[in-house]
Amino acid sequence: SKQAPLMEVLKKEVRAMLIAAKAGLTPEQLEEQYMAMVCKPLPLRDLGFQSTLELVTQMPEVVRICSSKNGTLILKAIADDSTKGIAKLVANQKVKTRKASKKTAMKANATFPTKNSKNPQSFQTLSARTPILPAAVKAELQDLLSSSPLLLIDLDKAFLRHFGRAFQYRQYGFLSMFEVLRSMSDSVVIEQTKAGSLVVLRRYLANQIEQEEVPRVASAAEMPPLEPIPETESFHQAALLVDSEPVQTQAVDLGDHVKRVSGWTNDLYIFHHQGSEQFPPTPEIPPDAVQDRSLCSLPPLKRRCLVGVIVEFVVSPSQFYIHICSTEASYKLQDLMFEMRHVYSHKVASDKYIMPESAVRPGQLCCVMVCKWWYRVIIHRVINDQEVEVFYADYGHLQIVQKSWLRFLKWHYLKLPAQAIPCSLAWVKPVEGTWSSAAILLFKHLCRFKELVGIVDEYVDGVLYLFLCDTSTKEDVYFHSVLRDMGYADVCGENIPSQEFEELNPSALYVQPSGKQGNPGVVEPDLCLQQESQDEDSETATLKLD
Protein backbone atom coordinates (compact mmCIF):
# COMPACT_ATOMS: atom_id res chain seq x y z
CA SER A 1 0.00 0.00 0.00
CA LYS A 2 2.95 2.34 0.66
CA GLN A 3 4.66 1.50 -2.63
CA ALA A 4 1.97 2.98 -4.90
CA PRO A 5 2.16 6.62 -3.64
CA LEU A 6 5.96 6.36 -3.45
CA MET A 7 6.08 5.21 -7.06
CA GLU A 8 3.84 8.08 -8.20
CA VAL A 9 6.07 10.67 -6.51
CA LEU A 10 9.17 9.02 -7.96
CA LYS A 11 7.72 9.12 -11.48
CA LYS A 12 7.27 12.90 -11.21
CA GLU A 13 10.82 13.35 -9.92
CA VAL A 14 12.37 11.12 -12.60
CA ARG A 15 10.39 12.85 -15.37
CA ALA A 16 11.52 16.27 -14.11
CA MET A 17 15.18 15.20 -14.06
CA LEU A 18 15.09 13.63 -17.53
CA ILE A 19 13.23 16.55 -19.09
CA ALA A 20 15.95 18.92 -17.83
CA ALA A 21 18.61 16.77 -19.55
CA LYS A 22 18.32 17.50 -23.26
CA ALA A 23 20.55 14.58 -24.33
CA GLY A 24 19.11 12.21 -21.73
CA LEU A 25 20.90 10.45 -18.89
CA THR A 26 22.50 7.06 -18.43
CA PRO A 27 21.15 4.98 -15.52
CA GLU A 28 24.29 5.86 -13.57
CA GLN A 29 23.84 9.58 -14.22
CA LEU A 30 20.21 9.37 -13.14
CA GLU A 31 21.33 7.81 -9.85
CA GLU A 32 23.90 10.59 -9.34
CA GLN A 33 21.45 13.38 -10.16
CA TYR A 34 18.76 11.94 -7.91
CA MET A 35 21.25 11.70 -5.05
CA ALA A 36 22.44 15.28 -5.66
CA MET A 37 18.96 16.77 -5.87
CA VAL A 38 16.97 14.72 -3.35
CA CYS A 39 19.92 13.96 -1.01
CA LYS A 40 19.13 10.25 -0.82
CA PRO A 41 19.52 7.28 -3.19
CA LEU A 42 16.77 6.03 -5.46
CA PRO A 43 14.35 3.96 -3.32
CA LEU A 44 14.99 0.75 -5.28
CA ARG A 45 14.70 -1.65 -2.35
CA ASP A 46 11.58 0.05 -0.98
CA LEU A 47 9.90 -0.57 -4.33
CA GLY A 48 11.26 -4.10 -4.76
CA PHE A 49 13.75 -3.43 -7.60
CA GLN A 50 17.32 -4.62 -7.93
CA SER A 51 18.61 -1.94 -10.32
CA THR A 52 17.78 1.45 -11.79
CA LEU A 53 17.24 -0.10 -15.22
CA GLU A 54 14.66 -2.49 -13.75
CA LEU A 55 12.94 0.50 -12.13
CA VAL A 56 12.64 2.59 -15.30
CA THR A 57 11.31 -0.35 -17.32
CA GLN A 58 8.28 -0.16 -15.02
CA MET A 59 7.74 3.49 -16.01
CA PRO A 60 6.87 3.15 -19.74
CA GLU A 61 4.73 6.29 -19.63
CA VAL A 62 7.60 8.30 -18.07
CA VAL A 63 10.88 6.95 -19.48
CA ARG A 64 11.93 6.01 -23.00
CA ILE A 65 15.01 3.74 -23.10
CA CYS A 66 17.28 4.44 -26.10
CA SER A 67 20.65 3.17 -27.25
CA SER A 68 23.51 5.45 -28.29
CA LYS A 69 25.93 4.77 -31.16
CA ASN A 70 28.42 3.11 -28.81
CA GLY A 71 25.74 0.92 -27.24
CA THR A 72 25.28 2.94 -24.03
CA LEU A 73 21.73 2.98 -22.69
CA ILE A 74 20.24 6.47 -22.56
CA LEU A 75 17.09 7.35 -20.60
CA LYS A 76 14.88 10.10 -22.01
CA ALA A 77 11.70 11.65 -20.65
CA ILE A 78 8.22 11.17 -22.07
CA ALA A 79 6.43 14.46 -21.44
CA ASP A 80 2.83 14.51 -20.25
CA ASP A 81 0.32 17.31 -20.67
CA SER A 82 1.67 19.24 -17.70
CA THR A 83 5.32 19.06 -18.79
CA LYS A 84 5.12 19.58 -22.55
CA GLY A 85 5.90 23.28 -22.14
CA ILE A 86 9.17 22.79 -20.25
CA ALA A 87 10.15 19.92 -22.58
CA LYS A 88 9.80 22.29 -25.52
CA LEU A 89 11.98 24.89 -23.80
CA VAL A 90 14.71 22.33 -23.13
CA ALA A 91 14.53 21.09 -26.73
CA ASN A 92 15.22 24.65 -27.91
CA GLN A 93 18.42 24.95 -25.87
CA LYS A 94 21.37 26.17 -27.87
CA VAL A 95 24.15 23.69 -28.55
CA LYS A 96 27.40 25.16 -27.26
CA THR A 97 30.10 25.44 -29.89
CA ARG A 98 33.67 24.46 -29.20
CA LYS A 99 35.15 27.44 -30.97
CA ALA A 100 37.05 29.78 -28.71
CA SER A 101 34.94 32.84 -28.09
CA LYS A 102 36.42 36.31 -27.89
CA LYS A 103 35.44 38.56 -25.04
CA THR A 104 33.34 41.37 -26.37
CA ALA A 105 31.46 44.14 -24.66
CA MET A 106 27.93 44.63 -25.86
CA LYS A 107 24.85 46.53 -24.76
CA ALA A 108 21.28 45.32 -24.81
CA ASN A 109 18.26 47.30 -23.71
CA ALA A 110 16.02 45.45 -21.27
CA THR A 111 12.53 46.59 -20.34
CA PHE A 112 11.65 45.96 -16.72
CA PRO A 113 8.17 44.89 -15.58
CA THR A 114 6.22 47.33 -13.48
CA LYS A 115 3.63 46.64 -10.84
CA ASN A 116 0.92 47.43 -13.41
CA SER A 117 2.47 45.35 -16.19
CA LYS A 118 0.21 42.61 -17.52
CA ASN A 119 3.13 40.71 -18.98
CA PRO A 120 5.79 39.94 -16.35
CA GLN A 121 7.99 38.38 -19.04
CA SER A 122 8.58 41.55 -21.02
CA PHE A 123 12.37 41.44 -21.10
CA GLN A 124 14.72 41.65 -24.04
CA THR A 125 16.90 38.68 -24.95
CA LEU A 126 20.17 38.57 -23.05
CA SER A 127 23.44 36.94 -23.92
CA ALA A 128 23.96 33.20 -23.46
CA ARG A 129 26.64 32.07 -21.04
CA THR A 130 28.97 29.10 -20.78
CA PRO A 131 29.00 26.70 -17.81
CA ILE A 132 31.02 27.70 -14.79
CA LEU A 133 32.61 25.81 -11.93
CA PRO A 134 31.60 26.46 -8.31
CA ALA A 135 34.34 28.28 -6.39
CA ALA A 136 35.05 25.26 -4.15
CA VAL A 137 35.51 22.92 -7.14
CA LYS A 138 37.80 25.36 -8.91
CA ALA A 139 39.84 25.67 -5.72
CA GLU A 140 40.16 21.86 -5.58
CA LEU A 141 41.56 21.72 -9.12
CA GLN A 142 43.99 24.53 -8.37
CA ASP A 143 45.10 22.72 -5.21
CA LEU A 144 45.61 19.51 -7.20
CA LEU A 145 47.89 21.32 -9.66
CA SER A 146 49.72 23.42 -7.06
CA SER A 147 52.39 20.80 -6.34
CA SER A 148 53.23 19.82 -9.93
CA PRO A 149 51.78 19.85 -13.47
CA LEU A 150 49.76 16.87 -14.69
CA LEU A 151 49.12 15.32 -18.08
CA LEU A 152 45.57 15.87 -19.22
CA ILE A 153 45.00 12.11 -19.59
CA ASP A 154 46.06 11.59 -15.96
CA LEU A 155 43.98 14.40 -14.45
CA ASP A 156 40.88 12.29 -13.71
CA LYS A 157 42.91 9.59 -11.94
CA ALA A 158 44.89 12.18 -9.96
CA PHE A 159 41.67 13.88 -8.81
CA LEU A 160 40.23 10.54 -7.68
CA ARG A 161 43.44 9.64 -5.83
CA HIS A 162 43.74 13.06 -4.15
CA PHE A 163 40.12 13.69 -3.13
CA GLY A 164 38.73 10.15 -2.97
CA ARG A 165 35.98 10.74 -5.54
CA ALA A 166 35.67 11.04 -9.31
CA PHE A 167 35.47 14.47 -10.90
CA GLN A 168 31.98 14.60 -12.43
CA TYR A 169 32.44 17.53 -14.77
CA ARG A 170 29.21 16.78 -16.66
CA GLN A 171 27.10 17.69 -13.64
CA TYR A 172 28.46 21.24 -13.94
CA GLY A 173 27.37 21.46 -17.59
CA PHE A 174 30.69 20.68 -19.29
CA LEU A 175 31.11 18.15 -22.10
CA SER A 176 34.79 17.35 -21.49
CA MET A 177 37.66 17.97 -19.10
CA PHE A 178 39.25 20.17 -21.75
CA GLU A 179 36.23 22.50 -21.59
CA VAL A 180 36.59 22.66 -17.81
CA LEU A 181 40.23 23.71 -18.10
CA ARG A 182 39.42 26.21 -20.83
CA SER A 183 36.96 27.88 -18.45
CA MET A 184 39.89 28.23 -16.00
CA SER A 185 42.24 29.84 -18.55
CA ASP A 186 42.90 32.69 -16.13
CA SER A 187 44.62 30.29 -13.72
CA VAL A 188 45.57 27.22 -15.83
CA VAL A 189 47.78 26.80 -18.91
CA ILE A 190 47.84 23.77 -21.25
CA GLU A 191 51.24 23.14 -22.79
CA GLN A 192 51.92 20.66 -25.59
CA THR A 193 54.72 18.20 -24.86
CA LYS A 194 55.94 14.95 -26.42
CA ALA A 195 54.04 13.03 -23.71
CA GLY A 196 50.80 14.89 -24.48
CA SER A 197 48.89 17.93 -23.19
CA LEU A 198 50.39 19.13 -19.90
CA VAL A 199 48.14 21.05 -17.48
CA VAL A 200 50.09 23.67 -15.52
CA LEU A 201 48.92 26.11 -12.85
CA ARG A 202 49.95 29.68 -13.71
CA ARG A 203 51.08 30.25 -10.14
CA TYR A 204 53.28 27.18 -10.40
CA LEU A 205 54.89 28.61 -13.53
CA ALA A 206 55.48 31.91 -11.77
CA ASN A 207 57.10 30.14 -8.80
CA GLN A 208 59.35 28.15 -11.13
CA ILE A 209 60.52 31.34 -12.85
CA GLU A 210 61.21 32.98 -9.49
CA GLN A 211 63.23 29.97 -8.32
CA GLU A 212 65.33 30.10 -11.49
CA GLU A 213 66.02 33.83 -11.11
CA VAL A 214 66.63 33.93 -7.34
CA PRO A 215 69.42 31.74 -5.83
CA ARG A 216 68.03 29.33 -3.29
CA VAL A 217 69.32 30.08 0.20
CA ALA A 218 67.50 27.58 2.38
CA SER A 219 64.85 24.95 1.86
CA ALA A 220 61.48 25.71 3.38
CA ALA A 221 61.22 22.04 4.34
CA GLU A 222 64.16 22.56 6.70
CA MET A 223 62.30 25.23 8.68
CA PRO A 224 59.09 23.86 10.24
CA PRO A 225 56.89 26.77 11.33
CA LEU A 226 56.09 27.06 15.03
CA GLU A 227 53.57 29.88 14.70
CA PRO A 228 50.73 30.65 12.25
CA ILE A 229 51.38 33.07 9.44
CA PRO A 230 51.18 36.72 10.50
CA GLU A 231 48.25 38.64 9.09
CA THR A 232 50.52 40.93 7.11
CA GLU A 233 52.00 38.09 5.07
CA SER A 234 50.52 37.46 1.67
CA PHE A 235 48.96 34.28 0.38
CA HIS A 236 52.05 33.63 -1.75
CA GLN A 237 54.21 33.66 1.37
CA ALA A 238 51.77 31.26 3.01
CA ALA A 239 52.20 28.87 0.11
CA LEU A 240 55.94 28.63 0.87
CA LEU A 241 55.34 27.21 4.34
CA VAL A 242 56.50 23.68 5.03
CA ASP A 243 53.95 20.98 4.42
CA SER A 244 54.13 19.75 7.97
CA GLU A 245 51.71 17.17 9.26
CA PRO A 246 48.22 18.37 8.27
CA VAL A 247 45.19 18.10 10.48
CA GLN A 248 43.28 14.92 9.69
CA THR A 249 39.92 15.26 7.95
CA GLN A 250 38.22 12.83 10.32
CA ALA A 251 36.56 14.00 13.50
CA VAL A 252 39.51 13.75 15.89
CA ASP A 253 39.02 14.10 19.64
CA LEU A 254 40.94 17.21 20.59
CA GLY A 255 39.67 17.35 24.15
CA ASP A 256 43.17 17.84 25.53
CA HIS A 257 43.50 20.74 23.06
CA VAL A 258 47.29 20.56 22.73
CA LYS A 259 49.33 17.37 22.44
CA ARG A 260 53.02 17.10 23.10
CA VAL A 261 55.18 17.56 20.02
CA SER A 262 58.19 15.28 19.83
CA GLY A 263 61.82 16.38 19.65
CA TRP A 264 63.05 19.92 19.61
CA THR A 265 59.57 21.36 18.99
CA ASN A 266 58.46 20.11 22.41
CA ASP A 267 61.62 21.42 24.02
CA LEU A 268 60.95 24.88 22.59
CA TYR A 269 57.35 24.77 23.82
CA ILE A 270 58.42 23.81 27.35
CA PHE A 271 61.14 26.47 27.34
CA HIS A 272 58.60 29.08 26.25
CA HIS A 273 56.45 28.23 29.26
CA GLN A 274 59.35 28.62 31.71
CA GLY A 275 60.14 24.98 32.13
CA SER A 276 56.64 23.81 32.91
CA GLU A 277 56.25 20.11 32.19
CA GLN A 278 52.46 20.27 32.06
CA PHE A 279 50.34 21.82 29.33
CA PRO A 280 47.75 24.31 30.52
CA PRO A 281 44.25 22.80 30.85
CA THR A 282 42.73 25.63 28.78
CA PRO A 283 44.75 27.12 25.91
CA GLU A 284 45.24 30.86 25.86
CA ILE A 285 43.04 32.52 23.25
CA PRO A 286 45.24 34.19 20.59
CA PRO A 287 44.88 37.99 20.42
CA ASP A 288 43.96 37.83 16.71
CA ALA A 289 41.08 35.37 17.27
CA VAL A 290 37.62 36.74 16.46
CA GLN A 291 35.41 36.54 19.56
CA ASP A 292 32.67 39.16 19.50
CA ARG A 293 32.53 40.40 15.92
CA SER A 294 30.26 39.56 12.98
CA LEU A 295 30.70 39.39 9.24
CA CYS A 296 29.05 42.14 7.24
CA SER A 297 26.87 41.57 4.19
CA LEU A 298 27.57 42.69 0.65
CA PRO A 299 26.33 46.19 -0.26
CA PRO A 300 22.69 46.17 -1.44
CA LEU A 301 22.06 46.04 -5.17
CA LYS A 302 20.18 48.85 -6.88
CA ARG A 303 16.61 48.23 -7.88
CA ARG A 304 16.19 47.18 -11.53
CA CYS A 305 19.89 46.47 -11.99
CA LEU A 306 20.90 43.29 -13.80
CA VAL A 307 23.57 41.04 -12.37
CA GLY A 308 25.11 37.70 -13.21
CA VAL A 309 24.34 35.24 -10.41
CA ILE A 310 24.92 31.63 -9.41
CA VAL A 311 22.39 29.94 -7.15
CA GLU A 312 24.47 28.22 -4.46
CA PHE A 313 21.82 26.66 -2.20
CA VAL A 314 18.08 26.11 -2.59
CA VAL A 315 15.40 25.37 0.01
CA SER A 316 12.53 26.50 -2.21
CA PRO A 317 11.75 29.26 -4.75
CA SER A 318 11.04 31.46 -1.72
CA GLN A 319 14.31 30.67 0.06
CA PHE A 320 17.64 30.34 -1.72
CA TYR A 321 21.11 31.87 -1.69
CA ILE A 322 23.11 33.32 -4.57
CA HIS A 323 26.65 34.43 -5.38
CA ILE A 324 27.23 37.49 -7.53
CA CYS A 325 29.26 36.58 -10.61
CA SER A 326 32.34 38.74 -10.47
CA THR A 327 35.90 37.81 -11.33
CA GLU A 328 37.23 39.87 -8.43
CA ALA A 329 34.76 38.46 -5.91
CA SER A 330 35.45 34.91 -7.10
CA TYR A 331 39.19 35.39 -6.69
CA LYS A 332 38.78 36.87 -3.22
CA LEU A 333 36.75 33.88 -2.00
CA GLN A 334 39.15 31.38 -3.60
CA ASP A 335 42.19 33.15 -2.16
CA LEU A 336 40.54 33.18 1.26
CA MET A 337 39.93 29.41 1.09
CA PHE A 338 43.50 28.74 -0.04
CA GLU A 339 45.03 30.92 2.65
CA MET A 340 42.87 29.44 5.41
CA ARG A 341 43.81 25.94 4.28
CA HIS A 342 47.53 26.73 4.30
CA VAL A 343 47.34 28.35 7.75
CA TYR A 344 45.06 25.93 9.58
CA SER A 345 46.51 22.75 8.03
CA HIS A 346 49.70 23.18 10.08
CA LYS A 347 49.22 21.42 13.39
CA VAL A 348 50.91 23.93 15.69
CA ALA A 349 49.00 26.80 14.12
CA SER A 350 45.74 24.86 14.12
CA ASP A 351 46.07 23.82 17.76
CA LYS A 352 46.61 27.44 18.75
CA TYR A 353 43.11 28.33 17.52
CA ILE A 354 41.23 25.46 19.18
CA MET A 355 38.06 26.80 20.74
CA PRO A 356 37.45 26.17 24.46
CA GLU A 357 34.03 24.90 25.47
CA SER A 358 33.04 28.35 26.74
CA ALA A 359 33.45 29.79 23.21
CA VAL A 360 31.28 27.16 21.51
CA ARG A 361 27.99 29.01 21.71
CA PRO A 362 25.27 30.20 19.31
CA GLY A 363 26.25 33.28 17.33
CA GLN A 364 30.01 32.66 17.55
CA LEU A 365 31.81 33.34 14.27
CA CYS A 366 34.53 30.75 13.61
CA CYS A 367 35.72 28.36 10.91
CA VAL A 368 35.26 24.65 10.28
CA MET A 369 37.21 22.03 8.36
CA VAL A 370 35.29 19.84 5.92
CA CYS A 371 37.17 17.55 3.50
CA LYS A 372 40.47 19.40 4.12
CA TRP A 373 38.96 22.81 3.28
CA TRP A 374 38.15 25.52 5.79
CA TYR A 375 34.96 27.58 5.69
CA ARG A 376 33.71 30.60 7.62
CA VAL A 377 30.71 29.60 9.72
CA ILE A 378 28.53 30.87 12.57
CA ILE A 379 27.42 28.47 15.28
CA HIS A 380 23.61 28.25 15.09
CA ARG A 381 22.95 25.80 17.93
CA VAL A 382 24.74 23.28 20.12
CA ILE A 383 23.36 19.79 19.46
CA ASN A 384 25.20 17.82 22.17
CA ASP A 385 28.63 17.44 23.73
CA GLN A 386 30.15 16.47 20.40
CA GLU A 387 28.14 18.27 17.69
CA VAL A 388 26.98 21.74 16.69
CA GLU A 389 24.90 23.08 13.81
CA VAL A 390 26.65 25.83 11.83
CA PHE A 391 25.62 28.32 9.15
CA TYR A 392 27.95 28.73 6.15
CA ALA A 393 28.04 32.49 5.66
CA ASP A 394 29.54 32.25 2.17
CA TYR A 395 27.24 29.51 0.86
CA GLY A 396 23.96 29.80 2.75
CA HIS A 397 23.29 26.34 4.17
CA LEU A 398 23.16 24.82 7.66
CA GLN A 399 25.09 21.68 8.58
CA ILE A 400 25.79 19.61 11.68
CA VAL A 401 29.54 19.22 12.31
CA GLN A 402 31.82 17.94 15.05
CA LYS A 403 32.93 20.45 17.69
CA SER A 404 36.48 19.23 17.21
CA TRP A 405 36.41 20.51 13.62
CA LEU A 406 35.94 24.12 14.79
CA ARG A 407 38.66 26.75 15.17
CA PHE A 408 38.71 30.42 16.05
CA LEU A 409 38.65 32.60 12.96
CA LYS A 410 41.67 34.85 12.55
CA TRP A 411 40.82 38.54 12.54
CA HIS A 412 42.34 38.86 9.06
CA TYR A 413 39.61 36.62 7.61
CA LEU A 414 36.85 38.92 8.85
CA LYS A 415 37.42 41.50 6.11
CA LEU A 416 35.70 39.79 3.18
CA PRO A 417 31.90 40.28 3.42
CA ALA A 418 29.67 37.21 3.65
CA GLN A 419 29.29 36.13 0.02
CA ALA A 420 25.90 34.35 0.22
CA ILE A 421 22.90 36.61 -0.42
CA PRO A 422 19.49 35.40 0.88
CA CYS A 423 16.94 35.59 -1.94
CA SER A 424 13.35 34.89 -2.89
CA LEU A 425 11.90 34.66 -6.41
CA ALA A 426 9.98 37.85 -7.16
CA TRP A 427 6.23 38.05 -7.78
CA VAL A 428 5.37 34.39 -7.17
CA LYS A 429 3.58 32.40 -4.51
CA PRO A 430 2.87 28.64 -4.34
CA VAL A 431 -0.61 27.66 -5.51
CA GLU A 432 -1.08 25.30 -2.57
CA GLY A 433 0.16 27.59 0.18
CA THR A 434 3.49 25.78 0.42
CA TRP A 435 5.87 24.71 -2.33
CA SER A 436 5.39 21.10 -3.46
CA SER A 437 8.39 18.78 -3.72
CA ALA A 438 7.93 18.72 -7.52
CA ALA A 439 8.05 22.54 -7.67
CA ILE A 440 11.22 22.63 -5.55
CA LEU A 441 12.84 19.92 -7.67
CA LEU A 442 12.02 21.79 -10.88
CA PHE A 443 13.41 25.05 -9.47
CA LYS A 444 16.64 23.28 -8.45
CA HIS A 445 16.99 21.90 -11.97
CA LEU A 446 16.46 25.33 -13.50
CA CYS A 447 19.15 26.83 -11.25
CA ARG A 448 21.71 24.05 -11.18
CA PHE A 449 25.32 25.00 -12.03
CA LYS A 450 24.36 27.79 -14.39
CA GLU A 451 25.26 31.43 -14.53
CA LEU A 452 21.91 33.20 -14.63
CA VAL A 453 20.80 36.77 -15.08
CA GLY A 454 19.15 38.24 -12.02
CA ILE A 455 16.87 41.28 -12.24
CA VAL A 456 16.66 43.03 -8.88
CA ASP A 457 13.16 43.99 -7.72
CA GLU A 458 13.49 44.99 -4.06
CA TYR A 459 14.66 44.04 -0.57
CA VAL A 460 12.13 42.96 2.05
CA ASP A 461 13.43 42.46 5.62
CA GLY A 462 16.96 41.91 4.31
CA VAL A 463 15.88 39.33 1.70
CA LEU A 464 16.59 40.12 -1.96
CA TYR A 465 13.60 39.58 -4.25
CA LEU A 466 14.67 39.14 -7.84
CA PHE A 467 13.64 37.60 -11.15
CA LEU A 468 15.86 34.84 -12.56
CA CYS A 469 16.43 34.31 -16.27
CA ASP A 470 18.29 31.55 -18.12
CA THR A 471 19.76 33.03 -21.29
CA SER A 472 21.33 29.84 -22.63
CA THR A 473 18.28 28.97 -24.75
CA LYS A 474 16.99 30.42 -28.03
CA GLU A 475 14.33 32.19 -26.02
CA ASP A 476 15.06 33.56 -22.56
CA VAL A 477 13.51 31.41 -19.83
CA TYR A 478 12.07 33.28 -16.85
CA PHE A 479 11.69 31.05 -13.83
CA HIS A 480 8.54 32.66 -12.45
CA SER A 481 6.83 32.03 -15.80
CA VAL A 482 7.96 28.39 -15.90
CA LEU A 483 6.62 27.74 -12.39
CA ARG A 484 3.34 29.40 -13.36
CA ASP A 485 3.03 27.48 -16.64
CA MET A 486 3.69 24.19 -14.83
CA GLY A 487 0.87 24.94 -12.38
CA TYR A 488 3.15 25.25 -9.35
CA ALA A 489 2.92 29.02 -8.78
CA ASP A 490 0.70 32.05 -9.15
CA VAL A 491 2.25 35.26 -10.47
CA CYS A 492 0.84 37.90 -8.15
CA GLY A 493 2.61 41.11 -9.24
CA GLU A 494 3.92 41.77 -5.73
CA ASN A 495 6.34 40.17 -3.30
CA ILE A 496 4.78 38.03 -0.62
CA PRO A 497 7.08 37.79 2.45
CA SER A 498 8.87 34.44 2.42
CA GLN A 499 7.36 32.11 5.01
CA GLU A 500 10.60 30.10 5.11
CA PHE A 501 12.75 33.16 5.85
CA GLU A 502 10.25 34.36 8.44
CA GLU A 503 10.70 31.05 10.27
CA LEU A 504 14.50 31.11 10.02
CA ASN A 505 16.88 33.56 8.36
CA PRO A 506 20.42 32.89 9.62
CA SER A 507 21.81 35.79 7.59
CA ALA A 508 19.53 38.24 9.41
CA LEU A 509 20.48 36.69 12.76
CA TYR A 510 24.24 36.60 12.35
CA VAL A 511 25.37 38.87 9.49
CA GLN A 512 25.50 42.64 9.94
CA PRO A 513 24.14 44.90 7.18
CA SER A 514 26.79 46.44 4.96
CA GLY A 515 28.57 49.33 6.65
CA LYS A 516 27.54 48.33 10.20
CA GLN A 517 30.72 46.31 10.80
CA GLY A 518 32.91 49.37 10.90
CA ASN A 519 35.69 47.73 8.91
CA PRO A 520 37.41 50.04 6.43
CA GLY A 521 38.89 47.03 4.65
CA VAL A 522 35.52 46.02 3.24
CA VAL A 523 35.22 47.08 -0.39
CA GLU A 524 32.17 46.74 -2.62
CA PRO A 525 32.88 44.00 -5.18
CA ASP A 526 32.82 44.79 -8.87
CA LEU A 527 29.80 43.29 -10.60
CA CYS A 528 30.09 41.40 -13.84
CA LEU A 529 26.89 43.05 -15.02
CA GLN A 530 26.38 46.68 -14.13
CA GLN A 531 23.44 49.00 -14.53
CA GLU A 532 23.98 52.24 -16.42
CA SER A 533 20.65 54.01 -16.16
CA GLN A 534 20.53 57.61 -17.34
CA ASP A 535 17.29 58.20 -15.46
CA GLU A 536 16.42 56.54 -12.15
CA ASP A 537 12.71 56.72 -12.96
CA SER A 538 13.16 55.18 -16.40
CA GLU A 539 12.04 51.61 -16.93
CA THR A 540 14.95 50.97 -19.30
CA ALA A 541 18.40 49.89 -18.08
CA THR A 542 21.57 49.25 -20.02
CA LEU A 543 23.27 45.89 -19.53
CA LYS A 544 26.99 45.52 -20.00
CA LEU A 545 28.32 42.00 -20.54
CA ASP A 546 31.97 41.49 -19.73
From TrEMBL:
<dbReference type="InterPro" id="IPR002999">
    <property type="entry name" value="Tudor"/>
</dbReference>
<dbReference type="InterPro" id="IPR041966">
    <property type="entry name" value="LOTUS-like"/>
</dbReference>
<keyword id="KW-0744">Spermatogenesis</keyword>
<feature type="domain" description="HTH OST-type">
    <location>
        <begin position="129"/>
        <end position="204"/>
    </location>
</feature>
<keyword id="KW-0677">Repeat</keyword>
<dbReference type="InterPro" id="IPR050621">
    <property type="entry name" value="Tudor_domain_containing"/>
</dbReference>
<keyword id="KW-0963">Cytoplasm</keyword>
<feature type="region of interest" description="Disordered">
    <location>
        <begin position="515"/>
        <end position="546"/>
    </location>
</feature>
<dbReference type="InterPro" id="IPR025605">
    <property type="entry name" value="OST-HTH/LOTUS_dom"/>
</dbReference>
<dbReference type="GO" id="GO:0005737">
    <property type="term" value="C:cytoplasm"/>
</dbReference>
<dbReference type="GO" id="GO:0030154">
    <property type="term" value="P:cell differentiation"/>
</dbReference>
<feature type="domain" description="HTH OST-type">
    <location>
        <begin position="6"/>
        <end position="79"/>
    </location>
</feature>
<dbReference type="InterPro" id="IPR035437">
    <property type="entry name" value="SNase_OB-fold_sf"/>
</dbReference>
<protein>
    <recommendedName>
        <fullName>Tudor domain-containing protein 5</fullName>
    </recommendedName>
</protein>
<dbReference type="GO" id="GO:0007283">
    <property type="term" value="P:spermatogenesis"/>
</dbReference>
<dbReference type="Pfam" id="PF00567">
    <property type="entry name" value="TUDOR"/>
</dbReference>
<dbReference type="Pfam" id="PF12872">
    <property type="entry name" value="OST-HTH"/>
</dbReference>
<comment type="similarity">
    <text>Belongs to the TDRD5 family.</text>
</comment>
<feature type="domain" description="Tudor">
    <location>
        <begin position="359"/>
        <end position="416"/>
    </location>
</feature>
<keyword id="KW-0221">Differentiation</keyword>
<keyword id="KW-0217">Developmental protein</keyword>
